[in-house]
Amino acid sequence: MFATASHSLNAYAKVGIETGVDSADPHALVMMLFDGALLALADARFHMGEKNIAGKGQSISKAIMIIESGLKISLDVKAGGVLAGRLAALYSYMCDRLLMANLQNSVEIIAEVAGLLSELRGAWAGIKPAANYDGAPMRLSENVRA
User: Fold this and answer.
1) Are 48 and 40 in contact (CB under 8 A)?
2) What SS3 class is residue 41?
3) CA-wise closest residue to 37 among 123, 101, 113
4) By CB neighbour count within 10 A (0-12 exposed, 13-18 middle, 19+ buried), where does 33 fall?
5) Are the C-beta atoms of 64 and 98 separated by less than 8 Å?
6) CA-based torsion, 77, 78, 80, 83: positive or negative
7) Residue 52 and residue 49: Cα distance in Å, rounded?
8) What are the pLDDT digits (tens) for 36-74?
9) What is the pLDDT of residues 89-142, one digit of tens each?
10) Mean pLDDT within 31-35
């Protein structure tokens, strides 16, 4: 009975996330990526404390995937110029550090990356979601919606 209830809760959570993604604007989608990466890093820390090597690896891999295939690929380098280039480099740095955290079983490195992601998330949250400075609707790289 517990397995059925757990399965139902997981299915409900998945539907909630999918519904949120389907109805989210580009700003909200990026917020979801930050939240997902931070949640994966919190899970990795938990698994480290439990000595669950497989769980730790899966959680770190998930965070790397979100950063690399979500946050980094969503950058519009043409429109973002130097700032987008620097963010891309920072995202690459974070992924490299997470690989080291996995190899060295380092909670400190995970905390470092989580801190960087939290700061970026806070900055992104402070951006007015409805429009850019020129009044045009916000847009992400075409890679986000593909």
Assistant:
1) no
2) helix
3) 113
4) buried
5) yes
6) positive
7) 8
8) 999 999 999 999 999 999 999 999 999 999 999 999 999
9) 999 999 999 999 999 999 999 999 999 999 999 999 998 665 444 444 445 555
10) 96
Which pTM was predicted? 0.75
Residue type, 63: A
Structure token pair of residue 18: 């999918």
33 vs 12: CA distance, rounded Å: 19
Predicted confidence at residue 135, as pLDDT, reads 46
Phi/psi of residue 33, each to 5°? -65, -45
Cβ pair 96, 67 in contact under 8 A: no
Query: What pLDDT digit, counting tens, does each position of 64-93 carry?
Result: 999 999 999 999 988 999 999 999 999 999
Amino acid at 64: I
CATH for 8-125?
1.20.120.340
Q: Which two tokens stand for residue 69?
A: 């295939």
Are residues 98 and 109 in contact, defined by beta-carbon separation less than 8 angstroms? yes
Both tokens assigned to 51: 């000595």
Question: Can you give the residue ranges of every domain in the chain?
Answer: 8-125
